[in-house]
Amino acid sequence: MKQWRRALAISRKDIVSYYGKPPLITWGLMFPGVLLLSIYLKDPGTYLQVSPGIVAMTLLFASTSMSAIVITFEKRAGTFQRLLLAPLHLDTIILGKTLSAAAYGLATTLILVLALAILLGLRLTVPGLFAIGLLLGAVLFALMGLIASMVVKEVFEAMTLMNFFRFPLLFISGVFMPWAKLPAWLKPLAWLSPLTHIVELLEYGLTGRSHFPSPWLPLGASLAFLVLAAGAAHVTFQRRAYL
Amino acid sequence: MASANIIHVTGLSKSFGSLKALDNVSFVVRQGEIFGYLGPNGAGKTTTIKILCGLLPRQSGEVSIGGLDIAEEPVRVKQRLGVVPDESNLYPELTCLRNLDYLGELYGLSRAARRARATELLGIFDLTDKKATPFGALSRGLKRRLTIAAALVHAPEILFLDEPTTGLDVPSAKALRALIQRINQQDGVTVFLTTHNLFEAEALCHYVQIIHKGQALAAGTAQEIRQRVTGRKTLEVTFDGPVPGDWWQVPGYRGRPPAPVNGRWHLETAGQELHQVLAFLLVRAEAAGVKIIDLEAGGANLEEAFLAILQEQRPGKEENP
Ligand SMILES: Nc1ncnc2c1ncn2[C@@H]1O[C@H](COP(=O)(O)OP(=O)(O)O)[C@@H](O)[C@H]1O
Ligand SMILES: [Mg+2]
What we know:
The complex is a heterodimer. Chain A is 79% helix and 0% strand.
């Protein structure tokens, strides 16, 4: 039945319809941009150390915001019902919505990375790993946003709900402070944060080094989180899509 | 008309908490007909459509559409259905053309097929000059039309219409009814239509199922239903001046003494005596030196019709005062 083509159609429509919505621009680009600028102004020497964290954070905010929007806007307008009436598997809808959100997260993050490379001389040591980190992170975060937006009704509720976990994640995932410098009691928690592993993958890609003994560790963990999130999204949609 | 049953519903029930929205409902829809699902607000019409279209799980009962159960094969069944929900819900930011195109994509049509079908439908629904207008900018009536066009993009076998003309002005509703008839006759689409309007059911439907408080009551052809509920006629009369208090006491008048509201008198009469009552009315008006400036004759309203049918179904219940 070529369900994947229908998923792509959903993504394409979402991308055209929702790129440029205010919450996306605020949370996707301005927030990390301003943050990075302030870090740079404060201390031009250390911004590179935090750039994997800031890049991962951008990915997190852009992907989750987009996926929250592609669901809640349509639920409120009643158009989400169109997808439920159409001959689509729930997983097709999830795939379509995830792809558009992940694509948005990637696009936003690439703008940031390009700006860093051109303006501040950022260089990648292992570009392949960096790219894998971005891809995994984009899809994983998009799925997380999708799950959150299925639980609420309004766009702002989704944003509030997500900030409830997005901000704490920033603090335990080595975004502002390298993982190694976290207090001992926080470290186990950091392991449980998907963001930690994405940050480490980006760190490997950027510097060729990381706090983890091998890149396989964050890679494996990210994949595991991805499978977990996909499963959770499936279950959440089954329970809540028709409400 | 072809007579194979395309929808089979047996013992369908659905509750919301303690409210029985549908209580052991059974009916069949024959292929190629316009099936009217007639009932007042809150009867359970939308709930039925939602279950048949796979938006809502049922609690018990059997539903077969074209031999398939939507609970078991949702994707295959949905491919064969077109649905117009009670609210027009296309994408407000997309143009009319893109709305049709997008839905065509969701139903798996090729690019060429989508283009051809969208152009054809915009023509049929008289929306060609609106093809570049965003759906959100259309009037209510045009929104309704595009929503129906969108439900037809993939040439479904069955079209569900949930109160298609509710909220439309009279000419728009009339035009829409003509379109529904055209779709049914020319393309052979089976139409499942809900309405709370007896007139609409009679004008449009080959077969009517009455539903009230979640229960399927009378069913039959539109004429059969009409005969069951038209024992009584109503008359609304407005005179251009004051009339004697007893003017309405004409032979054939059976109702309670009427009282005017804003100069408009409401009378009830037996259907077969309408002619006689009208004749006397004219004579009386002439004698009193007033003119009839407005006169409206109608069937019993739906509420009364339902009451009548309810009482037939449940003999022994207390009489109406
Ligand atoms: N999601 C719901 N939760 C609770 N009650 C509902 C829900 N949907 C419908 N109902 C109730 O079920 C009954 C039938 O509703 P509905 O099928 O929408 O009626 P109709 O479409 O004939 O006007 C009504 O009393 C309505 O209030
Ligand atoms: Mg309804």
